[in-house]
Design a protein that fits this description.
Layout: E1 12-13, H1 15-22, H2 26-35, E2 43-45, E3 48-52, H3 53-62
Antiparallel strand pairs: 1-3, 2-3
Length: 65
């Protein structure tokens, strides 16, 4: 029997949702973006900032010591 998997659609979070997922304040993400520090990867679409959940989770797991 062959199993067919549906393609996964990337999920993007806004700054508030991404901060909540990381247990951070949204201002922390804003500060990291402005400073260009080692914050989570994000996409900037015009004036809108979005965080892909897969990359956000991978970044967070990389920070676990």
């Amino acid at each position: 029997m062959t199993t067919i998997e549906a393609p996964t659609t990337p999920v993007y979070l806004d700054e508030t949702a991404a901060a909540a997922r990381l247990l951070l304040a949204p201002k922390t993400l804003r500060n990291w973006r402005a400073a260009g520090t080692d914050g989570p990867p994000y996409l900037k679409l015009g004036r809108t900032v979005r965080y892909p959940t897969a990359l956000l989770d991978a970044w967070a797991m990389g920070k676990v010591a």
